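Re: weekly structure request thread

Next one in the queue (269 aa):
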Amino acid sequence: METIYAPTLFDLQGFAHRDVFPADAPVWEALSGLKKYLEERLVSSIKGVGLYGEPLPKTVVLFGGKVWFDGFEILGGDPTKGTFRVRVRGEETTEATVLYGGCVFMDAAVQLGKGTVVEPGALIKGPTVIGNGTEVRQGAYIRGTCLVGDRCVVGHTTEVKGSIFLNGAKAGHFAYVGDSILGNDVNLGAGTKLANLKIKGNLIRIWTNGGALDTGRRKLGAIIGDGTEIGCNAVTNPGTILGKRCLVFPLASVSAGIYQERSVVGGRR
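Done, posted below.
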């Protein structure tokens, strides 16, 4: 019976957390072990900020192993392109992490990479690890047990829970990403919903040509291969696996199952 492994869907060479995917196990097992993986490796970036469960009263910069409450100037740019610049005590850098006033950390179990920006109104729960040059936009809600790579976007009013973003994955606007994995450079159009729970609450099975694979999981969203594009307001059903460089048309309802590389789903063929 067909089984889907991580290297079939993702180029893992440039992903700092490739070990989250267990060898010789179905790709969704990475989600089952995600919390333990994060708790064993996470090094908090925000202990020195010292304020949890309420909005930061002012903008804070993390740079050079220190928390800067003043003495910096934000020059701006695009974090995901490595052009977001901050001047700290006269030194201009693209490696400062910026926590804008008004963002909220519910606990200290959050690790943030260099050049990452957390905008006002974003809320993050641990355990969460976020890589370098990632943008967490205003109103984003990261509910914990999340692993986000480099140069990613967690966008405005996007909710992410129990999920993995590989490098360059973007959920920019009004998305829900639950118990899912987004491959390198995946893009979710505005309003995309990756549903993770069947209406009847049954354990989720992955349907293949050889029959059903029992995931053993009650919640499983979508697993999306590198370079796949999903159009605005599309919905994937629980237990959807999209191969590399697939194209999902706007407003599509994607049935659960396995879609081969370069599949086109919905719309005109």
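DSSP finds three helices and 32 strands in the chain. The two ends are 29 Å apart (CA to CA).
Next request, please.
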